Structures are given as structure tokens and as C-alpha cells.
């Protein structure tokens, strides 16, 4: 199959709203105001600070005084079956974060159209956090965009839960269902009866203390289900430390540790941006699971944020849903993730392969769920 010809600069200039230009951001650039949207990933200076030192870069779509950053890094399409990656295809991922309610669908289509010429041989676009029915969501159905890309949703549309803080902690409690409120109080009181005199909560915001904190958390995190089976452990080195150090230098890091007898048993790691706290990691020592220390630390950190209501208005619990988030949150929105494959022979082959494999995997997962195999396997894995 012949490769689809690229549009010439003259053709791009003649297209509607095509005066969006995409370029590479210089490492020393600064921007004011810091980001065109409510998410940290809308701030090009933040993306520069956390980019991978070997293969990361930041692109900028700009028009007049407006701009929108795109994070770029090497990655892979993973073909996962039963939690095991059976095949990987190397790609160059161009990540654009959604939740852009004030942007027009036409501008977003024009940005993605201009980005098409910067993808290169293995380039794909990955849209994350696209809020249901926002302009970016609507743009994905547009015939003009689909002339340039094949669109494939990655996973199901999911709930993203948040905690909107009131004037104080009592106002927050009043905003959640009565049964949830009673359960949270019961869990906190039970923990205090068992460990009250031995426990403390530490708040960590500086670069050096956060590095020490990660070293304390690492051996405990390695014993968790998330670390052993999902490779989502917390510790020094790698992308997480790079992000936390960058955030600490900008006054945007805020971590919480719950300690008993001087040993960390639960942790919360996150970032502050534009009046929001983005809660990236929460975990706890499995030896203390009976006292739900992760949920207790949730409660205690919410108390702290409620006391900071002048400059923290909302806690974002990020992607994915679980019973703890449903118990704590008082607001939610629905979001999706999408791959945009360029309409070349390579992009079309990647699109068809991933679409077919996902359909087979979803079918097998559905059968396993109906037979009870999936839940049985999950319990067995957690006990390992």
C-alpha cells in the first residue's frame, strides 16, 4: 500500500483554522500564564521539567497568544492477555491531555491536523483524560479529523472522581452520603484506639525530605500487590522521583506519610496545581490491612487540605475507580483515552492489530467473568 502523501505547507495554510503551528519547545523557555487548562499536563514548563532525559521532548501548538503543549516520549503498544503482555510494538507517543472545556472543537481539530505532520515513522497520538462530550471528545467524531487519523478508544470510558472541599472538614463530610460518613469516622476511630499514641502523620514538601521519604516507602511498597503484580511500586529513582523533585523545586509537591512507632505504614504522593491536588499514589503496608491505614491517611490528609481551603479547592483522585474512591469522593466526571493512528500503511496496520487483539481479549475476559474465573484468579494473585 502506498504511503499517504503529506500536505504541503501551502495546503495546510489554506485549510480552515490551519494557522496553528506546531514546534519543539526549547528547554529554557518560560510561559505566562502557566498553562491553558486546569491540568498539570497543560503547563509546558511542567512537561519540560519531567520529560525523560534520554528521549523526551515537548511540542507546542501555538496560534497568536494561545498555546497547547504535547508531551512526546518513546513507548510501546502493549498487547495484553490475562494481565500478561504477549506482544509489544515500539512507538513514539505524542500525548495530549483533555479536560479543555473552553477550547473550540475547530481549534482542536486544527491542532491535531497540524500535529500529523510531526509524527514521524512510528508516531501515534494518545489522548488521555478526554471528558465525555467536551469539545475534544466531539472532535474525535469529526470527518475532517478522521481523514487524517484512525481513532481507537483505549479501554472503557471510566469515572474520574474528585473531592470538592468546603470551608472546613465538617462541610466536606456533610457532602458525602451518611453511610459513607459514618464508615469513615468508624475506621478512623478504630485506628486511633489501636495506634493513637504511637502514630503520627508527616507532611513532606521539600526535595531532600521527599527523597528520604521515598527510600522509607520503597521496602514496604515492594510487599504490596500493586508492586509485585502490577509493577506500580513506589521508591527512589525513575520517573516518580524525577517528577517529585521537579515539583518540589516549583513548590508543587505534597506527600503524606502515616507512621506507627516511627515506621511508615501508609503514604500519599501528589502534586498541587491551580488550586487542585492531584493524588498520584496511595498505598499501605499489607501487614496493617486490618486497620485500613490507606483509608485512614486519606481522611487525615483531607482534614489537612480542608484547613488549606484558601488555596486548595479540590482533590483529584485521577483515573480509575474503586470502592475507596467512591466512598471518599463527592463529585465525578467520565473520561476516555484514545489512540489516533495516522492513515499510513503502518498506522493502519497498528490500528487493525490492536483493535482485533483488544476485541479478542475483551471477549475472553467476559467469558472468564461470567464463569467466575476472573475473580478467583484475582484473589489468588492477591494472596501470593
Summarize the topology.
Blueprint: H1 9-14, E1 21-24, H2 44-50, E2 57-63, E3 66-81, E4 84-97, H3 105-115, E5 123-131, H4 135-139, H5 143-148, E6 149-153, E7 158-164, H6 169-174, H7 178-195, E8 199-204, H8 207-221, H9 225-230, H10 238-249, E9 253-260, E10 263-273, E11 276-284, H11 293-307, E12 314-316, H12 323-328, E13 331-342, H13 345-371, H14 373-382
Parallel strand pairs: 4-5, 11-12
Antiparallel strand pairs: 1-2, 2-3, 3-4, 5-13, 6-13, 7-12, 7-13, 8-9, 9-10, 10-11
Helix pairs in contact: 7-11, 8-10
Top keywords for this entry?
single chain; 384 residues; alpha+beta; Aminopeptidase; 2 domains; 13-stranded mixed beta sheet; 29% strand; globular
Can you give a write-up of this model?
- The protein is an alpha+beta fold.
- The protein is built from 14 helices and 13 strands.
- Strands 1, 2, 3, 4, 5, 6, 7, 8, 9, 10, 11, 12 and 13 form a 13-stranded mixed β-sheet that branches.
- Helix 8 runs antiparallel to helix 10.
- The model is unreliable at 1-17 (pLDDT under 50).
Give the termini distance in whole angstroms: 49 Å
Compute the average pLDDT.
85
Low-confidence blocks of residues: 1-17
- Portion of residues within helices: 25-40%
Q: From the 3D coordinates, which CATH architecture of the largest domain would you assign?
A: 3-Layer(aba) Sandwich
As for the CATH topology of the largest domain, it is: Aminopeptidase
The portion of residues forming beta strands comes to 25-35%
- The helix-strand sequence is HEHEEEHEHHEEHHEHHHEEEHEHEHH
Count of separate DSSP helical elements: 14
Number of domains: 2
Amino acid at each position: 500500500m502506498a504511503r499517504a502523501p503529506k500536505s504541503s505547507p501551502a495546503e495546510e495554510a489554506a485549510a480552515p483554522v490551519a494557522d496553528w503551528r506546531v514546534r519543539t519547545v526549547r528547554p529554557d523557555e518560560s510561559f505566562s500564564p502557566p498553562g491553558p487548562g486546569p491540568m498539570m499536563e497543560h503547563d509546558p514548563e511542567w512537561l519540560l521539567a519531567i520529560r525523560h532525559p534520554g528521549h523526551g521532548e515537548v511540542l507546542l501548538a501555538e496560534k497568536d497568544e494561545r498555546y497547547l503543549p504535547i508531551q512526546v516520549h518513546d513507548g510501546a503498544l502493549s498487547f495484553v492477555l490475562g494481565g500478561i503482555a504477549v506482544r509489544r510494538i515500539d512507538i513514539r507517543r505524542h500525548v495530549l491531555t483533555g479536560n479543555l472545556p473552553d477550547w473550540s472543537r475547530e481549534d482542536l481539530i486544527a491542532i491535531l491536523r497540524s500535529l500529523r505532520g510531526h509524527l514521524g515513522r512510528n508516531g501515534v497520538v494518545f489522548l488521555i483524560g478526554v471528558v465525555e462530550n467536551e469539545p475534544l471528545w466531539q472532535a474525535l467524531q469529526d470527518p475532517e479529523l478522521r481523514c487524517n487519523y484512525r481513532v481507537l478508544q483505549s479501554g472503557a470510558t471510566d469515572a474520574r472522581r474528585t473531592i470538592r472541599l468546603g470551608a472546613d472538614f465538617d462541610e466536606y463530610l456533610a457532602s458525602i452520603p451518611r453511610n459513607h460518613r459514618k464508615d469513615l469516622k468508624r475506621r478512623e476511630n478504630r485506628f486511633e484506639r489501636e495506634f493513637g499514641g504511637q502514630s503520627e502523620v508527616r507532611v513532606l514538601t521539600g526535595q531532600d525530605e521527599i527523597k528520604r521519604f521515598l527510600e522509607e516507602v520503597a521496602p514496604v511498597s515492594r510487599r504490596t500487590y500493586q508492586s509485585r503484580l502490577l509493577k506500580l511500586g513506589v521508591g527512589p529513582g525513575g520517573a516518580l522521583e524525577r517528577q517529585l523533585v521537579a515539583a518540589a523545586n516549583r513548590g508543587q509537591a505534597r506527600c503524606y506519610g502515616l507512621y506507627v512507632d516511627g515506621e511508615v505504614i501508609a503514604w500519599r504522593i501528589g502534586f498541587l496545581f491551580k488550586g487542585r491536588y492531584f493524588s498520584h499514589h496511595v498505598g499501605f503496608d499489607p501487614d496493617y490491612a486490618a486497620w485500613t491505614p490507606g483509608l485512614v491517611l486519606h481522611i487525615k490528609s483531607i482534614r489537612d487540605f480542608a484547613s488549606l481551603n484558601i488555596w486548595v479547592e479540590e482533590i483529584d483522585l485521577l483515573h480509575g475507580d474503586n470502592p475507596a474512591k467512591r466512598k471518599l469522593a463527592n463529585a465525578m466526571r467520565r473520561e476516555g483515552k484514545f489512540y489516533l493512528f495516522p492513515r499510513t500503511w503502518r498506522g493502519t496496520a497498528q490500528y487493525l492489530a490492536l483493535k482485533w487483539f483488544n476485541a479478542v481479549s475483551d471477549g475472553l475476559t467476559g467469558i472468564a467473568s461470567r464463569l467466575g474465573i476472573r475473580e478467583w484468579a484475582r484473589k489468588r494473585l492477591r494472596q501470593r
